[in-house]
Amino acid sequence: MQARLSPVVFALVYCIAYTVVLAMDWPLFNYYPQTGEFTWGWVPRLEHAGPSMTWYGLMATAGGVALICAAIIRDKPVASALRNSLWLFPFAAMLACVYMMRIFFRQWFA
Amino acid sequence: MITALLILHGLAGVALLGALTHQLVSLVRAGAMAADAGAVVRRDDSGKSTFVRRYVSVGQGGFTLAVVVLYVVTLIIGGVIYPTYRLDVRIPFEEMSLIWAVGLFEVKEHWGGIGLGVLPLYVFVWRPQQASSHQRDRFAITILLSFIVWSDFIAGHVLNNIRGL
């Protein structure tokens, strides 16, 4: 039997998962560029290793969840049920990101 | 090496936004022409080959593979130079109290990450068999990806002008 991944399911779940893992700070791993170290999972940040980078880990978490769902759920019913509304998922994820980053722009409105 | 990669990142970004913008303009123009069909004789329909007509008369679907490849290449190069930004640019931004610049990069990276996950959907809506059933999705997803690429490109240039790698 040939395994098929559903592109629609992957993209929709990825958008939702990315927003959730960003909000909850759940990267699959952290990278510390100053020392070149990695930490896996939800362990406390390394104090001695300098600044950490979560972006790769966030994409890995969201991608992993999306891959699992895309392997299980079929495209057709989802694409039919959400016909012409699929674009709302990435749009909402983009808006949610801006909302979560609002703290950086507070000085503009101070 | 990092400077070379940054230039390559920028060049791939230019090619990507060129391909996406070309596809989007062609899509918008085709939609407008379909809406006008039969209503009014258009002034530029006199048989002359105008620049706009040549610009939009392309196989829109042919851009899809190029957009996906260029997006992934641009993102990978961006991912390679990102640690240098984190150490050599972001920390000085914080020391200069340019918190908005840090935020601008945060939005850029997250929108770029979301765009990566949207690529399978982009390919799906550009399949010929989805042309009629997912017309609005095709239009909106292409606009969203174009918006991500343009805003990320401009944000990258603004940040690089403040403090380059």
Description:
The complex is a heterodimer of chains A (110) and B (165). Chain A is mainly alpha-helical and 110 residues long. Chain A has one domain (7-109). Chain A has helices at residues 7-24, 55-72, 75-81, 88-100, 106-109, and strands spanning 29-32, 37-40. Chain A has a two-stranded antiparallel sheet. In chain A, a hairpin with a 4-residue loop joins strand 1 and strand 2. Chain A is flat, with a radius of gyration of 17 Å. The model of chain A has no long low-confidence stretch (mean pLDDT 91). Chain B is 78% helix and 0% strand. Chain B is mostly helical and 165 residues long. The model of chain B has no long low-confidence stretch (mean pLDDT 87). Chain B has 5 helices and no strands. Chain B is elongated and about 55 Å long. Chain B has helices at residues 2-36, 51-56, 63-95, 99-125, 135-162. The chains are: A mainly alpha (110), B mainly alpha (165).
Quick take:
The complex is a heterodimer of chains A (about 110) and B (about 160). Chain A is mainly α and about 110 residues long.
Name its key features.
heterodimer; A: about 110 residues; mainly alpha; B: about 160 residues; about 0% strand; elongated
List the helices and strands and how they pair.
The complex is a heterodimer of chains A (110) and B (165).
Chain A: H1 7-24, E1 29-32, E2 37-40, H2 55-72, H3 75-81, H4 88-100, H5 106-109
Antiparallel strand pairs in A: 1-2
Helix pairs in contact in A: 1-2, 1-4
Chain B: H1 2-36, H2 51-56, H3 63-95, H4 99-125, H5 135-162
Helix pairs in contact in B: 1-3, 1-5, 3-4, 4-5
